[in-house]
Design a protein that fits this description.
By secondary structure, this protein is of the alpha+beta class. It has two domains: 1-38, no CATH class; 52-84, no CATH class. 32% of the residues lie in helices and 23% in strands. It contains four helices and four strands; from the N terminus they run H-E-H-E-E-E-H-H. It has helices spanning 4-7, 24-30, 65-71, 74-84, and strands spanning 11-15, 34-38, 51-55, 58-63.
Length: 92
């Protein structure tokens, strides 16, 4: 992340192991940029403006955290499983 201030990238790619809520300096560097986050823990994504949900390589849902929960689709099912602390017995 320190080198990002020098090259001023337009897009950031982050994985869930990176704490992208980060410091004020990191937030400043990412302001007005596209940040792509790969995550399995959905709580990592809940504050993002837009979430794309993939299933078997296809985008199946698109929206904010609250919008996706209201649709009660794939994202909402995954969220409830993670919030409830259990894994499904069968594939989603």
């Amino acid at each position: 992340m320190p080198r990002c201030g020098l090259c001023r990238p337009v897009v950031f790619f982050l994985n869930q192991n990176y704490n992208f809520r980060g410091t004020k300096g990191q937030k400043y560097l990412m302001r007005d940029k596209t940040v792509m986050v790969i995550a399995h823990r959905l709580s990592t994504l809940s504050h993002l403006d837009r979430i794309l949900v993939f299933q078997q390589g296809e985008i199946v849902e698109d929206g904010s955290h609250n919008q996706l929960l209201q649709r009660e689709g794939h994202y909402a099912k995954m969220w409830s499983m993670q919030a409830g602390g259990f894994l499904p017995q069968s594939e989603l």
